[in-house]
Amino acid sequence: MIEAILSYFEISAILAAVLLLLVTFYIRSRQPKNLPPSPGAALPLIGHLHLLGKNPRRKFKQWAQEYGDVFTLQMGPQRTIFVNTLEAMKEAFIKKADFFSDRSQNSIVSHHASNVFNGIISSSGSNWKAQRTTSLAILRNFGMGKNMLAEKILEEVSFYTKELTKTKGKPCDIHNLTNMSISNVISSIIFGKRFEFNDPKFIKQIEMFNDLVKLSTGVLVFFPSLYYLPFDLFKGKKLVQLYFAMRDFTDEMINEVKNRNDSGNLDNYIVAYIEEMEKEKQSGQHYLDELNLARNIDNLFVAGTETTSTTIMWCLLYMLHYPEVQQKVYKEIVEQIGTERPPNITDKSNLKYLTAVIMEVQRKASIVPLSVPHLCNKDTTLAGYNIPKGTIVMPNLDAIHSSKEIWGDPENFRPERFLDDKGNIIKREELMPFSIGRRICLGESLAKMELFLYLSTLFQKFEFLPASPDNVPPLQDTWGLVAAPEHFEIRCVEREN
Ligand code: HEM
Question: Which residues bind heme (predicted)?
Answer without folding.
Answer: 441
